[in-house]
Amino acid sequence: MTIGLIPLAIxxxxxxxxxxxxxxxxxxxxxxxxxxxxxxxxxxxxVLAALAAVNVMVAPDDAGxxxxxxxxxxxxxxxxxxxxxxxxxxxxxxLTAVAIVVVARGLGLAAIPV
Amino acid sequence: MALAESRRRLLIEALGIAVSAIGFxxxxxxxxxxxGFSPIDAVAMSVIVFGGAAQFAAVGYVAGGLAxxxxxxxxxxxxxxxxxxxxxLAPWLQDVPRPRRAIMAHLLTDEAFAISIGHFxxxxxxxxxxYWIAAIASTFIPWNLATLAGVLVGGSIPEPSRFGIDIIFPxxxxxxxxxxxxxxxxxxxxxxxxxxxxxxxxxxxPAIxxxxxxxxxxxVGLLVPTxxAHETAPLGTPSSAARYxxxxxxxxxxxxxxxxxGREPGEREPGEREPGER
Lengths: 114, 278
What we know:
The complex is a heterodimer. Chain A is mainly alpha-helical. The model of chain A has no long low-confidence stretch (mean pLDDT 86). The two termini of chain A are 25 Å apart. In chain A, a hairpin with a 5-residue loop joins β1 (58-60) and β2. Chain A is built from 4 helices and 2 strands; from the N terminus they run ααββαα. In chain A, strands 1-2 form a two-stranded antiparallel ribbon. Chain B is mainly α. Chain B is built from 13 helices and no strands. Chain B has helices at residues 3-34, 39-48, 52-64, 68-79, 82-89, 98-106, 110-123, 128-154, 165-179, 184-203, 206-221, 229-232, 238-244. Chain B is globular. Chain B starts with a helix and ends in a 34-residue tail after the last helix. The interface between A and B is large, with 76 and 108 residues.
């Protein structure tokens, strides 16, 4: 059993903890420019959306170069987005996405990634 | 609102979040296992980092071979929003001894913030025990136990793609993003982030695409004028909480007598007194 990723976890902690602690431990931080807070506010949606989009829309071709991937994964992710926006329930959204992919692959309508 | 009554509501909210944390933590454990994490690696990350979205991102990038500096940069970007939470909670928790505030900070998640600040606002003051309930019972313990269960069970699942496990990561990312879309700026930032991310990923590399999307999306989002009251409210006020809390977390669905970001009867700012109260 490896523990090779524990240093990575510590590094991730090192960049996460300050953002959690600064406001609680450093008085006056709320006087930072409003623009800075507004930017931080928008980072989460942008990064998460970029992660999802790149993950389902970009895949390596036979030579390993990135190319546009079109597949059932798009439908599953959009369905998850719709369910979460509608029901405010992430688990339900995940189950919907998984169900779509499982059914499509089970029926042979979509390829199983290798 | 009385302490007992507010704590009762806090516990109900915490229970719902715990159920969600169990499911999500289990899925994280499964994904981590598929990406080659050992059980110790996966659980250590849940204990030490304790950040769901960033942990899922790390799973995807470790699996994709992204260098650690890239993973750390993305983690910093993803978790920067916690600064908003800590700044908003600071006025409430200023009387808590500094060492305990330092521990509280590690446990500050989207969920802990959402239910604890709702609890404080109902009371009109901080309740330290309420914060610990919100942070530990609702999220920390369920998340870590579920991670362990997921990573242990994950190894016994043959051909995981057949079961759609590969879709869990992007679906979780977009689901978490949906939870943060509280205004037009957030929507624009998300769309631009995704578009720039894919564009750069196709022409440069997926890793750089993610970083580019995460940096450019917010910059474009800032160009969208704010018009809704809760988008223009000063930071730390109840109205501003709706901008960065989990949507719906502060809305009383039973009575329906309150708009998102508005105040409930008796709800107060930190230090605010009743009329005539000295």
